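Course assignment 3, question 2. Fill in each field.
Student: A.L.
Task: Predict the tertiary structure for the chain below.
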Amino acid sequence: MLKKIMLVMTLALVWTQSASAKYLTVDELREIQAKMKSSDALTVDFVQTKFSGLRGKSTKREGQAIFVKPNLFKWMLQTPTKEFKIYDGKSFYDFSPDNNTARRYAPNGTQSQELRQMIDLVLNFDTLLKRYDLVSAEESGDLIKIQLKPKVASDIAGIELHLAKKEEFISFLKMDLTNKNSLTHEFKNPSRANVADSIFVLPPSVKITDSI
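Answer field:
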């Protein structure tokens, strides 16, 4: 009897959740995006999880990211070691604060491509629909869960985004790769306070090495 009661309660819960969910079209997503707050700066804390399909293991790191329109960013992994990636509007830097050294790359090089792609996912959701097909978009309460797949074959097999409507930012991003690996970021504590451009400038004492 208890099992039957539990089964009925479980089915009722599933039905309630599915009944409250709303599936959105591409046009509805664009409309929601258009209504969201636009700001010149965004700062978020994040937890990054890398999953290796070959090893079956996950590695977690914590950090903070700062974005300023049109294209400045500072991506700071803080654990277990500090690893900063910075674009100052002219060059892309791989900066090690512990060693006070940095490697400078061309702004459109392969070294910055993956990070730029992820930043585009976080900040420029509407432009994604030009490069990705919408698989599904489910709205439930304050959260919209979005599944995307690339229009053209690439190393990315699929993308999952969570859009927090109340705070108006991407709170979750998962990129599934064709090699069975995945990269997940959980974002929190969004702040839209203005940020000085100087925060993207390396300290004068940093030893910079150029890479072609």
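Instructor remarks: The radius of gyration is 20 Å. The helical segments are 2-20, 26-35, 110-123, 125-131.
Grade: pending
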